[in-house]
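ok so I'm stuck.
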Amino acid sequence: MKSDIDQPPRGAQVREALPAPPRPSVLLNALQQPRLAGLDVLRAFAVLVVIINHLGVDQFGPVVVFDGSLGVELFFILSGFLITWLLLGEHERHGRIALGPFYQRRLARLLPASLAYLLVGMGLLALRHQPIPWGAVVSTVFYGTNYYQAFTGAESHYLSHCWSLAVEEQFYLIWPFLLVALLQRGHSPRVVLMVAIPLLWLYKALLIFGFGVGEVYLYRALETRMDQLAAGCLLAALLKTPRWRQYFEQLARQPWPLPALMVGLLLSTSLLRDQSSPANQQLYGFALETVMLCTLLPLVLIKAAGRGLGAALLNTPVLVLIGQISYGMYLYHPFIVHPIRNAVVRLGGPEALGVLAAITVLVALAWASFRWFEQPLRERLRPRSVNSGPSHLPHAGTHTPPTRPAPAEPSRPNPGT
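replied:
not stuck anymore, here's the structure
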């Protein structure tokens, strides 16, 4: 018979019987925040890459550092990811997706600034006694600029860059209805997207190799850029599962993935941008970059929600601010950046100073538009319901690293994407 001394302490028995508490999901906690830390910096990177590229600065030696098409890809992936994450979250909470309020939020977010830009541009052209590109104006109003350019040769004017906005609007018109139909019929969006994306790549290959479709159409058509939007949708659907969140969290703990992805993107933009071969960019380059950007996105979310130098860089106030006003910066940059840069160069300043001055003026204009025009109208036009909650002007650099596990009930991310 064993004595009491031979018996383990009662507390130890209890501790051994209890399972270890599960490790809280850093990624899930980051995704449940009212504002997703790190995404504004990705938006800032995307819009700055596009603007600097449009200023004629794209590479240092053989390395393409500022590739505008990479910025557009990132915008498409972010759009697919954020919209799908919000819609799936709404379906989880309420068992349905209310498309009316969704489209009201989209219109409140996008329409005021785009109409203002359209009208201001027409006014400036009229004052200068220059012709107004009426075909482009009409196609922009109805968000068909991408196909208008695809079939007319993409003439250069102040609405030329609106093709990407048209692609996103067409995606917004199609994907929510398709997602609702899939969920109502019990189909998995993940499975459908995993099948659809390779089929889109095959379709693009058929256009290139079978029909010889040109670069202008391939670069702008919805169906040839839908794979990037769909990849963002797939990423959102995957991150709804613990297994994929755990995979990215394990990847984020390694020191090599982020540098490797950055090097891979630079290699792709430097080696696969041969305009004489549409397949290099449209098929191989865009496919590889889409995979790399989708891997990068959750790693940035994890890093930005943590501590240390990486989190501080990903929450830099000026970059967060640029990300928040990136839509206005993208809209208005044709009016601002070239005149400012050229004025600085004419006065004898270096081109780098001209680029910096142009971006600074553009940031000031876009912030003023956001603060005193877009945001007030957005508040008036947004749907009012108990589920939507108030929307406040986002502040730069407000991220606080998490100090406790993720809450049981997810909070709704800010829909101002």
